[in-house]
What we know:
Protein name: DUF1015 domain-containing protein
Number of strands: 21
Helix content: 25-40%
Pfam family, one: DUF1015
Largest sheet: 9 strands, mixed
Number of domains: 2
Amino acid sequence: MVVVRAFEALRPADKLAEKVACLPYDVLNSAEARELAKDNPYSFFHIDKAEIDLPADLSPYDPLVYQKAASNLAEFLAKGWLQKETTPLLYLYELTMMGRSQTGLVATTAIEDYVNGKIKKHEFTRPEKEVDRINHILACDANTSPIFLSYRENAALQQVMTAWQEQHEPVYDFESYHDVQHRVWVIDDPKVVTQLTEGFAKVPALYIADGHHRTESAVKVGLQKRQEGQASTESEYFLSILFPDNQLAIWEYNRVLNVPIPADFLEQLQEAFTVVATGEKKAAAQGQIQMLLAGTWYTLTIKDSVLPADVVGRLDVSVLQTQVFEKIFGIMDIRTDKRIDFVGGIRGPEELERLTARDDWNLAFAMYPTQMADLLNVADAGEIMPPKSTWFEPKLLSGLFLHDLETR
């Protein structure tokens, strides 16, 4: 059973939310953030990617960047652009994209639940990315970006949250990147807060949908605070937004390669796939992968004979990895090999066509999205998915909620 807890959020003044909120720090580079924030002093990029306020040739991991993040956060608070609640509350955060809505509960979750395996992961993390967020959290003494968690659908919890939405007005309501509507409700009734926290105490597990590096970093900071005797009540928890699994959509995470193409490449593929030049750009079902080679789209259908029994090995991304990337091209570690890159499905197959029309890449694969059931089953089995198996849309915006660790 898991701990879900109300907290005193740092959040934007009601009329500033749209100006403050920004995309997560890890979905765009420094130059893109600098451009988006150049005419907006309220942008949370000034805190989450503070290098935009420093010389462009400075490393985004320079200690000055973290110092600037902390000073910018202090300035936002001093000017009232961000304000701290005076009592612990919960929040509802609804995102609507292309007519589909998902509503998450904004709360803090327990470091101990992650340590004990009640908050489950499905990806490995990279140490250098952890260090970046650890330094950022330590400098700001706050979780500045929420962790995107999921849980198996719970009708009783959903009924409480839906009723609150229907009976109250949102404090934030605006459209942002990719025409996504963002709405936030404050749950300030102690009885409802208790109802939800006690309801989640009966939930057996939470699952990291997106934000593995943020989770590892937040947990390591909390454990470090303990070890150094600087722990507070708040540093034992980290900022999370919890969504029921049935409301979430995983998009495909596509691949592009720059590799020598063997003369018998299509014949080699036929050992594991049926290969047909169909012209179709998007996979229609699990077990199908679309391949773009020399301007032609092929449908690769995975043969049953190469499907392993385990939950990870059967994933489309795993079969592609073992049967094509490793066997044909010798790409053993897709996290570090420079011959491969990844393209979020929101960019569409047209982005694969654009990339392969240049000299950088000559082969592309458009995947069928990994399903939420696969993610939960892999996490429940204590297994790890291949890197870049999932791409969630819409993205949770940063800057709408911060969690003060209160260790200073």
